[in-house]
Structure formats: structure tokens, C-alpha cells
Design a protein that fits this description.
- The chain is built from eight helices and twelve strands.
- With 383 residues, the chain is of the alpha+beta class.
- It has one domain.
- A hairpin with a 6-residue loop joins strand 9 and strand 10.
Length: 383
């Protein structure tokens, strides 16, 4: 009786065919998974858009980009800084837009924990801000995390206490790159208290805009986008780092008289020649997403100037910066418009003339992307 069987050659051919099929299928599976993660990320920003409008319905204005919380006024911050000279400034971070939205993102308990502590004393030193800043701030908050970013699962800033929760959400300052982080945040910069941020976007420090502020139309104005998170504070990856260009980025400006940043200079100088993933000179103090409630622009904001996934740059830590949204999606970032619609902004979005100094009023020179960031620039451009 004759027995049937595969020859060794036939078996190897079948194995080879299976291997080829797996190799062809794997990218498709990975693409499908990323598409699902991108959709989840889009839903995060959809909820941010809904929360912004629910906040506006309740308070008759959108939340500020950052604000003083409780008793953290200028004199108290100065007292705290004097009592805690080695704390690195983190105890006096202003609160951000995300914290204000917490009651509308099913995070009421987290909001109240921070709120209660901030009002617990008239003395910041008595508040023991170094440790109390962590109360209500630990634990993952899925409502503000993009699953495409693998670092979302890591703890955020830890310092000398439990790690603070992370965030993927950043808010638009339009093309207002000047005076973005000034004296009411750091008492050591006492020359800045009267200096106002350049109000060119929807979410600046201590500025509460309304729907009527969007004279260009809420469907033509960007509200929030995403930013990749670093694994740690000293990560020099261009997606998440901030190029410290104090010398390279300034054009004769000084700390007390800042002039304009040239965005094109950031693109030209920020990254290592031949390796656009590494910054030439990294500012280790920047950790986007590492402190979810921080109102410091380097943690909480972005500009509609450089294309998405470009590097971010600073010409002075507290004066002039250009902050760029970033993601691990292919080709761009998610963004929510002020009408609540979510759009995917391509890395190739028109950015106009990046060799122009930062504008102070009127239309943005930075193309479609710049126009989408200004709520009242006189442009009706849409993505």
C-alpha cells in the first residue's frame, strides 16, 4: 500500500508561502491598529471640544490658557519661592485649561482635590506646595491621553513625590510667540508683571475669550491639538523637546526688550545636521504632557506657526517661544476647532512665509495654519 506524504521541498515551500503571507499581513494589521488608535485620539479631542462649549455655556466664556488658582497670587508666590529656593519653581505652576475643563470631562473629584488644597491657606509656604501639588494629580486620565503615544502609559513628572498624571492635549496660542510666560509665573522675573502675552490665539495666560471673540468664525479657528510626550524630562527627541536657542534664535533682543523670533531660523538651526530627530541644544526643563495641570506654555500650549511635527524653539525661557504640536500618527496631528469639529492637520499644511518676524496685529503671515490660529485676524481661511 502506497503512503502519501509531503516531500521536504514541498514542506519548505509551504512554510515560505506562509511566511510571505504573514509578512504581507503584518503591516496591514499594524495599520488597522493605528487607525483604531487614531480614531480613539480623535474622540479625545471631540470630547475636549464638547467640554469647551459646556464650560462656555456655564461660565459665559472659554477657560484661560492658565490662571491663578486659589491663593497663588504674586505676593504669595514670592513668599513661596523665598521659602522654597530649591524647588525649581514647580510649586508655583499656574493651573491650565485642562484643569478648568475637568468637571466637564467626568473628572470632578480630581478637580475638587486640587481646588480644595489651593484654597486651604493664605500662605503658600504653609501650604507646603512642594508636596501638596501632587494631591489629586496622580493616576492616568484617559480623557486627555492619545493612545498612539506609547509614553502615555508611563508616569509623568515625579520630582520628590508620586508621579503626576500625563496629558496629550495642548491649547492654541495662534501665532502669538512673544511674552508667553512672564512675571506672574516666576517671581524672579519681577520686571515682567505688566507685560501682557501677545493675544493672538484662543488660550493665553489670564485671558478668557468668548464665542464672540472668534470674529473669523469658530469653524475657522483652532482650539486644541496634541503633543507627543517624552519618556523623561531630558529626552532630546525633536518631537517632544524644546530647542534652547537663547543665542541662535534672538535678533538683538534682551530679556527686558524682546524682539521677534524668526520661525524659519528654528527649522534651520534646531536639529542636528543629518538627523532631524535630535535637537542641537535641548532645554531639559521642558516636558510637554509631564504635568497635566500645568499652565506653563511649554507644557500646555502650541502655536499655529511651524508645520505639525516640526521642532519647538525658545529664544528666552520666559519671553519668546514657538511651540509646535506633534503626534505619532502618520503625516500630521489631530486638532479640534472652536466649533467642536475635529480635523487632521497635515505636516504639509500651508505655513506661509516663515521668514517673517512674529506679527503683533492683523492677519497672520503664516499661511493657512497661521490664519486658523487667530480668532480675529480678519481671515476666513479653513483647513
Amino acid at each position: 500500500m502506497k503512503k502519501c506524504a509531503f516531500t521536504l521541498v514541498e514542506l519548505l515551500v509551504v512554510i515560505a508561502i506562509i511566511g510571505v503571507l504573514i509578512a504581507l499581513l503584518l503591516p496591514a494589521v499594524q495599520a488597522a491598529r493605528e487607525a483604531a488608535r487614531r480614531m480613539q485620539c480623535s474622540n479625545v479631542f471631540k470630547q475636549i471640544g464638547v467640554a469647551l462649549h459646556n464650560y462656555h455655556d456655564t461660565h459665559k466664556a472659554f477657560p484661560a490658557g492658565a490662571y491663578k488658582f486659589g491663593n497663588y497670587n504674586m505676593s504669595v508666590m514670592a513668599e513661596w519661592a523665598s521659602a522654597n529656593p530649591n524647588a525649581g519653581g514647580y510649586g508655583i505652576h499656574p493651573m491650565n485649561t485642562t484643569l478648568a475643563l475637568c468637571p466637564f470631562l467626568e473628572q470632578q473629584a480630581r478637580y475638587e482635590a486640587v481646588h480644595q488644597r489651593a484654597f486651604s491657606s493664605t500662605s503658600a509656604a504653609a501650604n507646603d506646595a512642594v508636596n501638596s501639588r501632587y494631591e489629586g494629580n496622580t493616576g492616568k486620565i484617559s480623557a486627555i491621553l492619545c493612545p498612539s503615544d506609547s509614553n502615555s502609559n508611563l508616569p509623568g513628572y515625579s520630582g520628590n513625590s508620586p508621579a503626576i498624571a500625563r496629558s496629550s492635549v495642548v491649547y492654541s496660542m495662534g501665532d502669538g510667540m512673544g511674552n508667553i510666560e512672564v512675571g506672574y509665573m516666576y517671581p524672579s522675573y519681577v520686571s515682567y508683571p505688566t507685560r501682557r502675552p501677545e493675544e493672538r490665539g484662543m488660550f493665553h495666560l489670564f485671558m478668557w475669550h468668548t464665542v464672540s471673540s472668534c470674529t473669523d468664525g469658530t469653524s475657522n479657528t483652532v482650539g486644541a491639538s496634541e503633543h507627543c510626550q517624552t519618556e523623561r524630562g531630558d529626552d532630546a527627541n525633536a518631537k517632544v523637546g524644546l530647542f534652547n536657542g537663547t543665542a541662535a534664535m534672538r535678533e538683538g533682543d534682551t530679556a527686558n526688550n524682546p524682539s521677534s523670533m524668526i520661525p524659519q531660523t528654528c527649522l534651520n538651526n534646531a536639529t542636528v545636521a543629518g538627523d532631524k530627530t535630535q535637537l542641537v541644544n535641548h532645554w531639559g526643563g521642558n516636558w510637554p504632557g509631564g504635568i497635566w495641570y500645568s499652565g506653563r506654555p511649554a507644557y500646555n500650549n502650541f502655536h499655529t506657526v511651524l508645520p505639525p511635527n516640526s521642532p519647538s524653539c525658545s529664544s528666552d525661557v520666559v519671553v519668546v517661544m514657538v511651540l509646535t504640536p506633534s503626534s505619532y500618527h502618520t503625516g500630521g496631528v489631530n486638532a479640534v476647532l472652536m466649533d467642536g469639529a475635529v480635523r487632521f492637520v497635515s505636516n504639509t499644511v500651508d505655513c506661509g512665509n516663515l521668514s517673517v518676524k512674529r506679527p503683533l496685529q492683523g492677519k497672520s503671515p503664516y499661511g493657512v495654519w497661521g490664519a486658523m490660529g487667530t480668532p480675529s485676524g480678519g481671515e476666513s481661511t479653513s483647513l
